[in-house]
Amino acid sequence: MTEPDHYKNTAAIQASLKKRYARETRFKWYGRLAVMTGFLFLFVLLADIIGKGLPAFTQHFISIDLTLDAATLGVSSTPDETELFAADFGAVIKRGLRDTFPEVSGRSEKRSLYRLVSAGAEYELRDRVIADPSLIGTSGPVWLMAHAEAGSYLKGQVDTQLPESDRRVKDNQVAWLDELRDQGRTESRFNTTFFTAGDSREPELAGIKAALYGSLFTLAVTFCLAFPIGVLAAVYLEEFAARNRLTDLIEININNLAAVPSIVFGLLGLAVFINFMDLPRSAPLVGGMVLSLMTLPTIIITSRAAIQAVSPSIREAALGVGASRLQTVFHHVLPVAMPGILTGSIIGMAQALGETAPLLMIGMVAFIMDVPGSVSDPSTVLPVQIFLWADSPERGFTEKTSAAIMVLMGFLIMMNAVAIYLRRRFESK
Amino acid sequence: MSAVSVTANGTGAVDAQAAAGEESAGFDIEHAEATEDFETTGTPFVDNPKMSARNVNVYYGEKHAIMNVSLDIGQNEVIAMIGPSGCGKSTFLRTLNRMNDIIPICRVEGNITLDEEDIYTSGQDTVLLRARVGMVFQKPNPFPKSIYENVAYGARIHGLAQSKAEMDEIVENSLRRASLFDEVKDNLDKPGTGLSGGQQQRLCIARAIAVSPEVILMDEPCSALDPIATARIEELIDELKEKFTIAIVTHSMQQAARVSQRTAYFHLGRLIEVGETKDVFTMPRHQLTENYITGRFG
Fold this sequence. Notes:
The complex is a heterodimer.
Chain A: H1 3-53, E1 58-67, H2 70-73, H3 81-86, H4 89-100, H5 107-114, H6 121-131, E2 139-145, H7 148-154, H8 171-182, E3 186-190, H9 193-196, H10 209-240, H11 245-257, H12 262-276, H13 284-308, H14 312-320, H15 325-353, H16 357-361, H17 382-390, H18 395-428
Antiparallel strand pairs in A: 1-2, 1-3
Helix pairs in contact in A: 1-18, 10-13, 10-15, 10-17, 11-13, 12-13, 13-15, 14-15, 15-18, 17-18
Chain B: H1 12-25, E1 41-42, E2 49-60, E3 63-74, E4 78-82, H2 89-95, E5 106-114, E6 117-118, H3 126-132, E7 133-136, H4 147-157, H5 164-177, H6 181-184, H7 197-210, E8 215-219, H8 227-240, E9 245-249, H9 253-259, E10 262-267, E11 270-276, H10 277-282, H11 287-293
Parallel strand pairs in B: 1-11, 4-9, 4-10, 7-8, 8-9
Antiparallel strand pairs in B: 2-3, 2-5, 5-6, 10-11
């Protein structure tokens, strides 16, 4: 090459450099823009959920002077537990409310006065008195759980500028609540009910515990079924099965199963597990079985990929010192593949945790108030609970929906944290 | 059958070079039939063989990778296998402990015996075979476990140690024989993958000898190492031949000349020439061997 050519080339390269760098800069900005857009949406979503859900973690209480006399309760002066169980604590609360606002008269006005206090307050009072019968005959201020609507007013969620007919909290209730608040007889506390109760028709009495336990049980069943079966299937297909038509067919089917809509698994669960095998309806056992069917393909596919990714030199090394194939797989291949297998399993489990459709098919959408005690008790799960609450019109359930989503996300983050911890442990070995 | 089709894993360029070499040698290996009409030059057979191969043919699917190779490996000798890439020397080595079994399309024909017992009968247990015929691979491949565990593993799965003390002894002796012990004795619980390349390869040798094999197969054990590490491994091979029979595949003719007593030259799936190392390198009898060792191809 002659010298003038060199100069020409350098000039040409220099001319193109600016364009090339500009293109690179532009590309970087597209990337940043994409990441920022994603973050923006995530931020908006989280802000919305947290903004709506946070009030659900507090609960208002109203202090009313109550007189726990045996006559109003309808019990003897030294009542036993069964007597107290049937006692009319509602009447005590109603009288206390009437005494606090003596000016209230008329049936409908009284009824709206009674609606300041939660329907659950009398049961709470009953439990308190049963625990300490010496309270009978005493009088004094008692903190009672506010009704969801009264609570929502006290949280400042009710716009009093709206015409009265458009809101659930009426003008007279607003006046009473203002008076109580001015007297320092309202209090906001951390909402323990939300974590200790099951579902309820009353928003202030509804809790997440039943759904949380339902999800725990369901996921436990899913994991116990899907993880060992999935990993064993993957190991067998990857390490032991001959490559032939049959295994090709199985592989294609597994890949296709991963794409089957989840509701189809629900139908299968309904037909096979409930109608044919006669397992209990609405139970985490069946839910877990259905979800494990749904999760299996994911676990098998990711586990196979993880096993495939293990360097063949490790297999050779193990076989070279005389390890059997089984020893090679369990001593060397699986430990190395474990982080990948765990990642896949956690993705599958996270899918299962968020799944609603197949569970609707097997009856886990039922209204269940009791916390399940075993995998065969009827229960619901977090996403279904969210779905049920989102369906309810009461303001109290709207915030509970968001709060339940927060709990679901917390659950998910915990699961991921466990997975990351396990992965680190396997990687460091 | 073309030159390319008979290679197991060779690159086209080398094959072309090799083919060019053949033409100049005036020997038409490409068209020679796989069986009877080709005879290995030199002395493939010895009086006291540890292992012996007779008429071994290896196929990868349709590819005929090893053609009618017969070779003895003597007791306590170091035999080097040399030849251009894709000549089948590694493939042949791996048939000696049935490492090719893990390749589904690989098929082995012929007879290979270890102490006069056929290792390719259906009754032969590959686990036992590989415990008796150990292997060191081209790339150092320690397990992603501690140094101690790496060496102890083979002995543990075969149940060679009855107690922790015995196991410690096996590990220490193996590491000493692999002349690695002094470098790692304070770090036995550190991962084996954290060692340098040369140390890793010596760890792999320690791992192989911890099982007390009778034969050690080495597949280009120094190709990933620097000259200093290579020199140490070569010294080691020299010491190890007191106790073990060693078959080593190498690309380095100097290495073959330094460590081995006998040398086998492979070319395109055939065993061309075998003899005392000094004879093969000083007065090769076959034209192809001469071309190779004088650097005309490969």
